[in-house]
Amino acid sequence: MDERTRADVERAEAAIVEHYPRLxxxxxxxxxxxxxRHRRVLTAHGLVQRALPRTRLRxxxxxxxxxxxxxxxxxxxLVRQRALRLALAYEGQPGRVLPALPLVxxxxxxxxxxxxxxxxxxxxxxxxxxxxxxxxxxxxxxGLDEDAARAVLARAGAGEPDAAQRxxxxxxxxxxxxxxxxxxxxxxxxxxxQTRPTDLxxxxxxxxxxxxxxxxxxxxxAVAGAWPDTADRPAPTPAQQALDPGRLLRTPNExxxxxxxxxxxxxPVRGRQAGDRKLLARALRVWAAPPPDTRIRxxxxxxxxxxxxxxxxxxxxxxxxxxxxxxxxxxxxxxxAEPEGATPTLHFARVDAADLTTAAALVIGRGKGxxxxxxxxxxxxxxxxxxxxxxxxxxxxxxxPDGVTDRIxxxxxxxxxxxxxxxxxxxxxxxxxxxxxxxxFLVADLDDLVPAHLSSGPPxxxxxxxxxxxxxxxxxxxxxxxxxxxxxGSLRGAGVRSVxxxxxxxxxxxxxxxxxxxxxxxxxxxxxxxxVTLRFLPPAARPADPGRIAGRAGNTAACSRFGPQVxxxxxxxxxxxxxxxxxxxxxxxxxxxxxxGVRATAEENxxxxxxxxxxxAEVTGRLRxxxxxxxxxx
Length: 634
Description:
Largest sheet: 9 strands, mixed
Oligomer: single chain
Number of strands: 26
Number of helices: 14
Shape: globular
Strand content: 25-35%
Structural class: alpha+beta
């Protein structure tokens, strides 16, 4: 080895030592997410540790790529290129084995869980090729410009670097919170990992037979030459592993009380048939390849694709003479129902970015006029109440030891009136939420696998972290819900995650008409888009009087933290018979202007002016912070 070669090797060795976390983060990003987080962590570390070849390092043709900021030594570029080439080689080869080192036994490693934005980016990255993930990492993690990143991709063996660059740029635009900031979070850092044990009970049973197995292996090794060589037998693919009931993920019983990620990943396995491998195998086979007569239901925007990796088992048991298995693949819940002597059913629901309230329950059984919930392990109490009777106290509900509730009546079907609207009131355990009067929250069955969280309160300010709205169990919130509950029927089967009702203004009506409330009801779906309905609630003789709809809007950010300001208007008739145009805006509105057939101005967030019942008018609110917002129409 000449002096120049020795210097190259020494620089490469120094680069690995100095920039090891940076190299591992880039490699982890490029590896296929379908490998699972534990396997990706080990593989990323193994590939970086193999990035220094035993033979002479060769300089890439064309010299080193230009970079923004201080240029690192050439050794880093050489090691990065080799690690990137090794990571790209895993694309499309799910059976590829792990590097020999590092080796971890008895523990599972995974990066710290991020928030909803990190989870959304991780899911978006799983849907693009490795070259696109590499292009994104070279730009945001390595600070390379487009030309430099393109050159690195080409030398690492990525196909069509230009197309990868364009796809990475598009993915960056679609990431609302910014991919650069998210990729720097703990969710994508394989050097800052958490550990959990594997199945301790199963491991303990295996230890008891280690001596016997070792003896058998010793004898087998002595006669191994007499048997055919099976070393080249391909490892099972992730799709094949997903059909093995023995590989189903099972969360320890108490993990929910000791984790920062309180969602379906923290649910333990429950149900008497959780060990029935034949039942679990049938459920997995039907999910992977449904027979022609299988009944399949999927919430709006939910994929029914087969499992790509072993899912997590949440429940397996008998519910009202129906064998039920519930599985979770990190993005979807899948409920397999096997009635005796009848056609099986699959029900899919998207539940990515679930939290303490939206992962609090799922529908485990349903019949004519009733349903049952399976509760999250952190729910300490469940009661039921009728939204249309806000003053009535809630009623207690029995829960079986496995978390299955007694039957809960269903709201009336659409078109059959709205005389009652039963909902469940849940209270989380004090082990994860401090005790208090506002900790309980409401959920409503909207004919999906997961109930919708009903909340009440204004959205957080734009740019602030999303908080959990108040639980809608206080008296003012229940009064508003009593007047808006019947509209929930229009949201059935739409994949609704949460519904928030917000009294954004209160107005004194002309001619001593009393005080009226202006309410915005926002429904957010699991797939992202939300819709709003604006209501005018004048004084009413009955608690459940629905008031009048003042406006609607679909696919809008109105009444959310990204568009918290709203304006609404309608024509209203006083007791004298005279008609008025009424308008109101949220607290951020400092003035109102009307144009069209009605000309009026107000220097506050409410307005009332005489106008005929059919006189057209456009109402615009002037925001205190600058800008304006228009009132939608019904």
